[in-house]
Amino acid sequence: MSAFRRVLLIAPLLGLCGACQSDPPTQAAIRIRLDTESIDSGCMSSVCEDYSMTCGAMVMLRITDPKTGEVLLRDNVEPLSLCLQAPSSEDLCGIKTMDMRLFGIPAKNVRVEVALFNPDDKIAGQCPSPNGFELFDRLGRPQTNSKLPLAFAGSANFQAGEDSEVVVPLFCPNPEVLSVDTCTANLPTDVRAVVTDIDSMQTLRKEQAPTITVEVGEARSVPDNLGTSDFVLEAADTEALALNNLGAVPVFEDSIGKRFGDLVCSTTLEGVPQATVSARCEQVPFQAPDLELQPILIHKELVDAALLALGETSFPDAGIVIGRVVDESFSPSAGVAVTPDSGSVLYLDDDLAASPLGLTSNSAYFVATDVPFGSTWTASHFDGRRQSGTPRAGLIEGKVSTLIIRLTGDVIGE
Fold first, then answer.
1. Phi, psi of 151 (to 5 degrees)
2. Nearest one of 179, 293, 310, 199 to 241, comparing CA atoms
3. Are residues 173 and 204 in the same domain?
4. Fewer C-beta neighbours within 10 Å, C or N terminus of the chain?
5. What is the band of 278 on the pLDDT scale with cuts at 50, 70, 90?
6. Same-domain pairing of 138 and 207
C-alpha cells in the first residue's frame, strides 16, 4: 500500500514572503490527512479511495490568527485566503495533484485552515469572503452547523518562518456533498470500439477503417401519437470516436466527457452515398469508467436487399432490425429459429430474398420491423443448440438496429 493510500497527503508550497526584507522566507509544505483518531471527526477511513469526489471540490485555504480566528492580511491589505477548484474525480485522491500556494505569510505563529466543499455552494462563483462564514470555532475546529456544508475541514498551527511543514488533520463532517448522484454523470468515460463487418464476420481491415464513421451514445425515448414511445439516436445524442489505425486491428476510441447508463449504442456509417447508420446497443455496467464496445457494420447492399425482401420502397421512419446467426467459429448457421420477446421475424434466403421457411438459410440473415427497442432475443437450432447470453436489439428511428447471435460461446459484446 502506498504512503498516499495510508494517509491522504498534499504537499504544496506555502509561499515566499515577497514583501518582507529581513524576515526569513516563509515557505512550507502543507500535509493534510483524514483524522480517524478524534472521536467526533466523522471520518470512517483515512484512505482517500474510500471517499467519492464525483462533484469535484472547492478547496479553501486560509491563514488566520490563532487567538481571534480572523483571516490575516498580506501586507496589511490582501486577505490570506485562497480557493482552488478540483475537477471531478472518482475519489478524493484526485486532489493530490493540486498546487496550492499562498504568499506573504507573516513570520509568526499562524493557523492554517483547510476546507473542502461542493463547488456549487460557492457564492456567486467566488471564494467565500474571508470572514463571511463561521467555518471554524475559536479552537480551529470545523463548525458542524455552518451555513456552508463542509465535506472535509481542519486546521493546524504553524510557525511561519521557522517550521518547514504543517500537517492539517481533516474532519469529515459531510463527505457525501462531494458525491451526489447527479455529479457522476459528468465524469469522463474512456471508450474503445472494435468494429465487426457483418458480411465477413471479421474486424475491419486497416484499409477499410478510414471510410467508416463510428460514434457512441444512448438512445432516448420520445412520445408518439399512440400514447407509447419511440426511440431515437440523433446526432446530438452521440459522440464521434477517433480512429487509431496503428495496430494490427483498427480501433475507434476517445474519452467522452460523461458517464453512460447500462445500455450503450455504438453506430457505424459507411462512407458511400445513401448509406444508412447502423446501431448496435449493448448491455454494459452502469456508469462504467471504461467501455469496450463492438459495433457492427452493415453495408448498403445488405440494407437494400432487406428492404426489398420486406416490400419497402424506402427506408421506414421507424427503422428496421437486421441480424445474423453464427456458430461457435463465427460461420453463418442455417436451420435456426430466432424469436424476439415481442414482434416477428422475416428470414432471408441464400440470395437475400424473403424466405418462405421459418428458419435461417445458409445466409443466416433475418430482419424485423416491429420489434421494440431493447428487446431480448432467443435462438434455437434443431440440434438443440441455443443462443449464448442475452442479445438485445430493437427499433431506433431511421437506423438499422443490428445484432449477431452466436449459438455457442459468447454473444458479441456480452
1. -80, -50
2. 293
3. no
4. N
5. very high
6. no
Answer whether residue 412 is part of any domain: no
Q: Is residue 71 part of a domain?
A: yes
Contacts of 376 (CB under 8 A, 6+ apart): 340, 341, 390, 391, 392
Q: Let me know if 7 is exposed, middle or buried by CB neighbors in 10 A (0-12, 13-18, 19+).
A: middle
For residue 224, is it within any domain? Answer: yes
Domain extent, residue 215, equals 189-406
- Using CA atoms, how far residue 5 sits from 29, 151, 167, 214, 381, in Å, is 19, 19, 16, 39, 53
Tens-place pLDDT, residues 86-142: 888 888 988 877 766 666 777 888 999 999 988 877 553 456 665 656 788 888 888
Domain termination site, one of 145, 161, 181: 181
Q: Over the stretch 302-355, which tens digit does the pLDDT of each residue have?
A: 999 999 999 999 999 999 999 999 999 999 999 999 999 999 999 999 999 999
Query: Has residue 414 been placed in a domain?
Result: no
| pLDDT confidence band for 27 (50 / 70 / 90) | low
Q: Cα 156 from chain centroid?
A: 37
Q: Which of 245, 241, 248, 234 is nearest to 190 (CA)?
A: 241
Has this prediction a pTM greater than 0.85?
A: no
At residue 133, the pLDDT reads 60
Decide: residue 237, CB within 10 A, 0-12 exposed, 13-18 middle, 19+ buried: middle
Instruction: State the cell numbers at 56.
Output: 469535484
Structure confidence at residue 275 (pLDDT)? 94
The grid cell for 77 is 491589505
If DSSP codes are grouped into helix, strand and coil, which group holds residue 302?
helix
Number of domains present in the structure of the chain: 2
